[in-house]
Amino acid sequence: MRCLLFVCLFLTSLSSMALDRFQVEGYVLPNGLQLLLKPAEKGHVSIRLVVGIGFDDFTCKDKELPHLLEHLLFSGIDNSGEGGLEQQMQALGGEWNAFTSNTDTTFVIEAPAQNQRKVLDLLLNVLTHTQINQANLDTAKRIVEREDGGHYSHLQRWLDKRDLGHSASNQLAVELGLKCSERPEVDHLTLEQIETIHDNWYASNNMTLIIVGELDKLLPAYLERTFGQLNAVDPTEHPPLPSINAKAEPERTLVRGALGDGAKLHLLFPEPDMGEQHDETWDLVKAYLDWSLYSELRLDKGYSYGPWADREAFGDTGFLSLNADLARDDVDAAVASVRSMLERLRKEGMDPATFARLQQASIAKQAWAVQGNSALADYYWGALNDYEDGRFEDPAKRTRGVSLDLANRAMRQLLAQPGYLRIEEPLVSYDELYEIGLAVVALLALVIFWRWRVHKRRPL
Ligand SMILES: [Zn+2]
């Protein structure tokens, strides 16, 4: 009855909801499935089924389990197998894909509005009728292995152990104990493990279904009749995220490739906790450092064409990084220049006019960055934690709430740390190769001359 009431409310509010993208009709079915329905552009629907299971839920050894299951779920729902399943989706004019991330596994579907219920039927069938058997698991293993860059060779494992196979930020995360040092493997994972996670995590009360676009008038009733029948389980606790538990070198040079004259600079800082306004504060500090880096390395000194600042999280720790593509010969000068720029910022703080301009640009961008059903559905997927009482929080409001004083405090705390410097460069530069070549030629000439002398002296 309660749900019927909701259906009526939902239908009467269709037109008014379309005006405000942060207002989204959301409710929970009796089996715990969270629904978010947003009427938007006509003719099409974007569907996201977010399952609360990701890489973070597994130990280093078993990390690929959720990813394997994700692939397995495309193996087929009847004797026509994988191809038959794909044909059914094609016949409905839709497209689908799935992604496993650290925190969730998400099925992403774009489809014509008139087929939305048939497409949802197919998705439900995938969840409940996929043939989880050894043959399909073996196929999924091969695909996952291929996606991870082919068979994990002894050489690759050795390189990973020596930190040569990771990007600079990943390498630092491994050093600090925030990330697994080796690539996870799939060979040892069993059908039983896959079945267990399918039973324990692919449950209605661990899922959110987001649908954006021209919504079928009967959608709420349909969803209750179909997805409302999925089983709920006692939720499994997510394990705690890894924290920094080891020391890392303050400065390192990482070898990337054999030969070249390029280099990359990365200066990484863990982000101190800024409480309630943590994310929006660091986004603005990042924007400020991005601009400062561009002014310094590109406009003033010309060391780098496109330096950039970035934010990335590993385990429970966020990092803000300054990065630049450089010529190998400029590395020392560029590092000195970045260090003195940061020292200046720490002493003098941000320029108020520049901060105001970047804050305004960030707010303006939020108004136009999310366009169309698909982008809107992705936005809701990424912002699920900010949904409450029928509304997503407006990020512009939060951005506007960051004062210059707060941003300065955050930046000064960040820069009070020495940070971690990582330089990526090839083993040998072209100049060095030329010198090595000259040395080899000289050595060869000496050997030939010596042989010739010895030969000449030998009595006939
Ligand atoms: Zn994959």
TrEMBL record:
Task: List UniProt keywords, sorted A-Z.
Answer: Hydrolase, Membrane, Metalloprotease, Protease, Signal, Transmembrane, Transmembrane helix, Zinc
Name the Gene3D superfamilies on file: Metalloenzyme, LuxS/M16 peptidase-like (3.30.830.10)
Q: Which residues form the Peptidase M16 C-terminal domain?
A: 189-361
Ranges that cross the membrane: 433-452
Which InterPro entries has this protein been placed in?
Metalloenz_LuxS/M16, Pept_M16_N, Peptidase_M16, Peptidase_M16_C
According to the lineage, what is the superkingdom? Bacteria
Q: Give the signal peptide, or none.
A: 1-18
Please give a single GO biological process term from the UniProt record. proteolysis
Keyword Hydrolase annotated: yes
- Whether Chaperone counts among this entry's keywords is no
In its UniProt record, a GO molecular function of this protein is: metallopeptidase activity
- Which Pfam families does this chain map to? Peptidase_M16, Peptidase_M16_C
Q: Which residues form the Peptidase M16 N-terminal domain?
A: 44-147
Q: What family, per the record?
A: Belongs to the peptidase M16 family.
Q: Which PANTHER family did the record assign? A: NARDILYSIN, PROTEIN YHJJ
What's the protein here called?
A: Predicted Zn-dependent peptidase
Q: Which organism is it from?
A: Pseudomonas abietaniphila
